[in-house]
Amino acid sequence: MGSSSSPLGLPLNEIILEFLLHHLRFIPVCFILLPLSFIYDLVTRARNYVVHSVNSAPRAHDRKVAKIQAEVREWAAGDRKKKMCNARSGWNTMSFRYPLYKNTSTLISTNTLIDILEVDEEARTIRVEPMVSMGEITNYLLPRGFSLPIVPELDDLTVGGMINGCGVESSGRKYGLFQHICVSYEIVTADGSLVVAKKGTEDAESQGLFYGIPWSHGTLGFLVAATIRIIPCKPFVKLTYMPVGGFKDMTAKLQSESTVAENEFVEGIQFSQEMGVVMKGRFSDGPPKNREINEIGKWHKPWFYTHVEGIGNKNEEVTEYIPLREYYHRHSKSIFWELEEIIPFGNNVLFRWFYGWLCPPKISFLKYTTFGAVRRIYERRHVLQDMLIPLTDLEKGLQVFHEKTNIYPVWLCPFNLPTCPGFVKQKTGRNVLYVDVGVYGVCKKDDYDPRKTTRELEEFVRSVEGVQMLYADTYMTREEFYQMFDSSLYEWLRVKLNAKDAFPDVYDKVKKEARF
Ligand SMILES: Cc1cc2nc3c(=O)[nH]c(=O)nc-3n(C[C@H](O)[C@H](O)[C@H](O)COP(=O)(O)OP(=O)(O)OC[C@H]3O[C@@H](n4cnc5c(N)ncnc54)[C@H](O)[C@@H]3O)c2cc1C
Ligand SMILES: NC(=O)C1=CN([C@@H]2O[C@H](COP(=O)(O)OP(=O)(O)OC[C@H]3O[C@@H](n4cnc5c(N)ncnc54)[C@H](OP(=O)(O)O)[C@@H]3O)[C@@H](O)[C@H]2O)C=CC1
Ligand SMILES: CC(C)=CCC[C@@H](C)[C@H]1CC[C@@]2(C)C3=C(CC[C@]12C)[C@@]1(C)CC[C@H](O)C(C)(C)[C@@H]1CC3
């Protein structure tokens, strides 16, 4: 029944089912996932409050690490037929990945490492376990007058993911990537020993590991704690929105604002071929008397990017004062521009006033319930990619993305990439401004083919010495992958740390075939 074929080559009944499931997805999301997410967050906050009050995390940390070491040693003493990976389930992670290797590997319980360990205000550092999220860090640090120099914006992103993967944010023009604000990593290696990889030590192996860990995706060892720089901050951000025209204008404005030393934050959003907005931000104690604060994080406020678009359409420069935490998590409430696809009326004023306080749904809960037809729709039409390219190539890059995907808005986040050893190697010997080009949405091109189009984008990125963020689907071959990424330090560390039979290679973890 109903097996007549459609222009997409799929049976008609499947197309209809997909259409219905996709368009009615808001029902379970609004009535089940939103309340569950809200309760989950309340319980987590209460739990963290108790743990911080009784300061039990440091003692528990040693116990948890000893257990992880014992698990690794047990693996090392066994037949070593399976490789190891983190026990955190695939659906729990902030990517479109559903990793296959989780089903066939020995799972090591790093997912118990969920606490902030200590803050040293004098040394200006914080020591945390890897499963601590960005939301927890801002909740903990901001009331104390400190912040991480880089706070990737989605609340549920974890320190472990930001270090073993990659983390980008609008303060990147000053501080680089998340890895560049880290001071040391505590790693359990393949033989179960605990080593400290530290920036600036005499010990070459420790230095090497420090530069090798970022982007290694848990294939050199298990991160059990990280010490990260903190900076003093102020309660508000003075944010200036500057509308710009097309791609050339956007590139020039991002370039000029990124070199202004006083700008703490620089971000761009391109809304069409003709219009974009560049935002520059500085820490502030608050607005002068006659100026209002825009609490963009409040439940009834419009989604941030729609607010920015409104300013762009009026083509007027606007300055606002925004509470710092609300600025950091400005794209959380609308999951960038992804929530509209799931709850199409989510930005409607009535929905916001009556239901907005429950938003956003937890990405992990959404992911857990994305299966079957809905997954296929995302696979077929959705582009989720972040490409990091030199800022000087942005105009060309925007043109390529326009031709291949025609998706707007496009997120643009400049950051400084220094010359240093590691998987991502920029070889000029100086600091170079890069930009993260983030494309998330439904592709409007009729000839869109996920493999073909992504491969074309990847080819462009390689041609300008850029890199692809590896939470996204990569369709490169192994050779192409290692043209994009530098494996020299990585390979040396893999041999030195006996990691080759303990962990898969990065490529084998991130390639499309390793995900389902
Ligand atoms: C990822 C990274 C790794 C670094 N590693 C070391 C290190 O091992 N030993 C050390 O003494 N300093 C190192 N530095 C430089 C050190 O951080 C700075 O000297 C100091 O922190 C001042 O930082 P800044 O923010 O004022 O300047 P930044 O703009 O962060 O950097 C200052 C200068 O240091 C250069 N630099 C970048 N990477 C390295 C590197 N691996 N080694 C030396 N210089 C570098 C930059 O190109 C720039 O010219 C490193 C910097 C970064 C970003
Ligand atoms: N603003 C930004 O920068 C944003 C970044 N992202 C991307 O999302 C990802 C982060 O998602 P998140 O859910 O936090 O992280 P994930 O759990 O997805 O972890 C990312 C990778 O790091 C490895 N890893 C995580 N923790 C450890 C650890 N303790 N020891 C060793 N390896 C570890 C994982 O290994 P394993 O596979 O074994 O679990 C995995 O390969 C990042 O890769 C990032 O690039 C997404 C949105 C925004
Ligand atoms: C560098 C930066 C800023 C990256 C931002 C990337 C986000 C926009 C990505 C990361 C995870 C991500 C791919 C995700 C999704 C949207 C885009 C996200 C949030 C969603 C929620 C789309 C809906 C899907 O059904 C599903 C729930 C599986 C995914 C989960 C991951």
TrEMBL record:
Claim: Mitochondrion is one of the keywords in the record: no
Residues in FAD-binding PCMH-type domain copies: 52-233
Chief subcellular location: membrane
Keywords from the named record: Membrane, Oxidoreductase, Transmembrane, Transmembrane helix
GO terms for biological process, alphabetical: steroid metabolic process
GO molecular function list: Delta24(24-1) sterol reductase activity; Delta24-sterol reductase activity; FAD binding
Compartments reported by the entry: Membrane
An example Gene Ontology CC term for this record: cytoplasm
Reaction it catalyzes: 5alpha-cholest-8-en-3beta-ol + NADP(+) = zymosterol + NADPH + H(+); lanosterol + NADPH + H(+) = 24,25-dihydrolanosterol + NADP(+)
EC class name: oxidoreductase
UniProt-listed Enzyme Commission number(s): 1.3.1.72
Protein name: Delta(24)-sterol reductase
Organism: Pristionchus entomophagus
